[in-house]
Amino acid sequence: MALSDGFYTLGANINKSKDPAQQETQEGAVDSVPELELSMDDEELISLKKKWISAWSTKSKDLSDKQNKNEKYWKGQFNDGADGEGKKKPMADNLIFEAVETFLPLATKTNPEPVVTSDGTETGVKLADDVTRQLVYLADILKLKLSLKQVVRNWALFYLGVLKIGWSEVTKEITVMVVRPQKLILDAESTVVSAEYTGRYIGEYCTTTADLLVLRFPKKAEFIKAEVKDNMGSDVTYIEWWTPEFVFWTLKDEVLDKRKNIHWNYETESMGMDEFGDEMPETIPAKNHFPEAQMPYVFLSVFNLGLSPFDDTNLIEQNIALQDLIHKRIKQIDINADNTNGGSVVSGDYFSKEQAASVGDALRKGKTIWVPKGNVNGAYRRDTGTPLPQFVYESLMDYRSELRNIFGTRGSTAQGVAGEETVRGKILARQSDSDRIGGGFIDYLEQFSDKVFNWFVQMMYVYYDEPHAGSIIGAERAREYFTLKNDKFDSKLVVSVKDGSLIPKDSLTKRNEAIDLFGQGALDPISLFTALDFPNPVESAKKLFMWKSNPMMLFPDMAPPMPGMPPGAPPGQPGMEGAPPGMPPMPPQQPQDMLSQVPIQ
Fold this sequence. Notes:
This protein is of the alpha+beta class and 601 residues long. 39% of the residues lie in helices and 16% in strands. The protein is built from 18 helices and 18 strands. The strands form 7 sheets. The chain has a 5-stranded antiparallel beta sheet with strand order 4-7-8-9-10. The protein has a 3-stranded antiparallel beta sheet with strand order 3-2-13. A two-stranded antiparallel sheet has the order 1-18. It is flat and about 135 Å long.
């Protein structure tokens, strides 16, 4: 069986219907494209590449304009004719930027918590524990939280967030890289379901210098040098193509290299002995975390109807009309405010055109104007703008509030909670934002993080041939050190993200809940001090127990000598190690009795 037998055919639907929804109900193949096989010659691969680029260019021809528009609104650099002029200018009140940058910290406030389970054996439990700690360590050193934030920002601006998993030959460790969606060539028939990309191939535009490209593809050194005319410091953009089983690289009409999926372990052949002692080849099965080879990209898509890998709409697009209205209202108020400064109306019966300018200047400076004869009131008058109706300002506030509501950030901004008169009201307003984001978007982000952690484990299977050391902050804030190697991966692992670990949690609310539960006897002291973020919860709980049982246990240096003890003997507890030999144990004293024995200075 050929390695390519597992591929779907790359044919069908190259000449697409303009309406993707209609294409779903059309029968038959429109075009025929051969399956990708590693045995294909370079000419056939280049032909496939051109078909893929053409199909995606047709599919995404309108996407670039929408992405650029969203980016300009986020930057506050563009107004789409809301004021009737349609000129590029800075936004006076960029609520879209505020909403996006308020949404991001809420959505990515906490790190995803990996959960790893195994077959339940002692070895499997130990492996699951080690892998969990390694995932926490990787999330820390790779700054996964910041990568997630950039992925979410790309999703909010460009309708798709993408993270690429890789391996560094320099650091000998797993890497992550946020990929701009504009750099990808995707399958025109694909979509994204639960962070799973359904396409058959992915192309990524990569840029590096010519000298580094030669180091990576030495067999094509002469071709690369000819392309840059021996200017080896020049930047060169090439395309990296992925399918589940193969990866190859192209530069224009040249294939730089091709090989099997580099992030997958393949079965190997070795010589063994049969029952008669004769040598015979035997197949050693490969160990992998995934059931089948995959492309090393993880996708974040939320508002998707299944017609494209990109979202059909997003929060910025839904709020552009509101942003335009906000800009229009602010400009109306600004113009009216300028008019309240007042202008001058000067009669030609009393002043010439030249004198009229002097009259206006004199009025602004508060000087005296001389009218030689006639009615002074007919010579000039001050003119001021008519105040705008109250509903103009009210509509501005409504537009701003509605924009924040759509993003789910109204209660998380200073303006959003200004109308709340009580602290509890402000907390509830913020909690409503957390519920909105946590109950909707966070489900997708948790699934995205789940896929990332599963990719980390797959990379461990492939690349952790040598022990990898790591460290995390464990119990009691102590640092734990450990090592991990893939020869220990004998148990099947199930990797997921703790449900709700990414839901935004208000720290004040958590503290108040812990205090209330402790007061009702429903929470132990260690959990209380953990929720209050004490540096050493167990030690703090011990001190609390000592204080409630015998306060003087916290201050042994203040305990008085016991009766019958020789002078200079160390203080001790009643009837304990400080008593002279042969003396019967003293009955325990109450804390107030002990305190009464402390001499008054």
